[in-house]
Amino acid sequence: MSNLMKKNNLTLPAALLLLGASLPSQAFDLVGAWHAARDYNADFAVSRAQRDAGQEKLVQGRSQLLPQVSATGTYGYNNPLQPSSTPTLTGGAQALGRYENHGYTVGMQQTLFDVGKYTGYKKGKLGTELADTTFDAAEQQLILDIAQAYFDVLRAQDTLAATRASKKTYLNLLQQAKTAFEVGTATITDTNEAQAGYDGAVAQEISDANNLELAQNNLKRLTGLDPAGIQAVRDQLPLDPPKPAGLEAWIDMALQNSLKIKTAQQNLDLAHQSAIEKKGNHLPTVTLNAGYSDQISNQYGNYPHTRGSNIGVTVNVPLFAGGGINSQVREALAQEEAARDQLESTRRQVKEDVRKAFLGVTNGAALVRAQQQLLISAKSKVESTRMGKEVGIRTNIDLLQAEQSYYTALTSLANAKYSYLTARLALAQAAGQLEPQVLADVNRLIVR
């Protein structure tokens, strides 16, 4: 450290910054990005806090059915002004004048019958379950978002690498075309074609570099990791069919386990309990009341200390509320119907999501194989065209077109590969199966 500072005439903070910049970025894979996001991602932290808050709904709902106990203490100092005289009672006690009183009261209320409080308990229980489901859905969505961001960076890297390779090739062809034109063995057309190809590659490189920076920034926003440490995906991916292999089996699995459907069902249950609660406002409430009091006063000498207890039942019967209760019932029933329709809509959407993701896996695997074969053919075409150009049966334009087809196939293969991997995770999410272990299994198969 000291040699570095002396050699470059640096202060300590500047030297530390330079040393940190020279260290390699910490490598991470797909699972590493996911673990980092769980601790770093602010949106996921919000979901975690909301889940913790939702756990209290059960406690709050249950508390309304348990005894409500309260204690009250009193102290008073009294100084009557009229009359001013203070007659004396038998025994010498004062009838009027300054006196103090103090005491306490303990009271208890226990609900015996109250539809509103019972449904409040049911709603609290459902609210806690809904908070858990919402958090699980947020966790699965974060897994998919991290994977998408991870693959977007690799996709942008592969695309930029292909563009830069094509740019280098076009530059070599341009230099050859210029040399051939100068010695008279080629026309200006070859030079112009090569120049157009090179200029197009330069423009595409700028666009691809911008896309890569955006993808890297998005991954860093989600995980807090330096995108330079990302690990690449192996060239040959396992293209196994989904298990189970049938679409209907995946749809059945989704209908049973989809978190979207589970959320919609819980919202319907909440709406149903709200309707019961509003209907219950027509019914009486019954409450058990009990208490104990202890009061001391020195106003009267004969009775300075009083104690007592009480117990009773209170029945409250609603008679007329101006039509408000009926209106609330109709509103709650309409909201319940809306929640039921939303559940059906969610079921249909989940089925469509499963079909889309299933085809993305099955057809995506076939597309990857086709793109791999296309890349082999495109490379062979480039080699054949280059040999044909050397013997005079192919032109520089033919070679440019073959080179362009090769790099297009290279980019298409990268897109197909990452789309296939994303579809595998999307299928698991649609079926409610996108657990961290699923991500770990995919990571183990694809990362080099």
TrEMBL record:
Region forming the signal peptide: 1-27
Species in which this protein is naturally found: Chromobacterium amazonense
Recorded superkingdom: Bacteria
Acetylation keyword on record: no
Subcellular location: Cell outer membrane
Coiled-coil regions listed: 326-353
Family of this protein: Belongs to the outer membrane factor (OMF) (TC 1.B.17) family.
Record's protein name: TolC family outer membrane protein
Predominant subcellular localization, coarse grouping: membrane
Gene3D superfamilies: Outer membrane efflux proteins (OEP) (1.20.1600.10)
Keyword line: Cell outer membrane, Coiled coil, Membrane, Signal, Transmembrane, Transmembrane beta strand, Transport
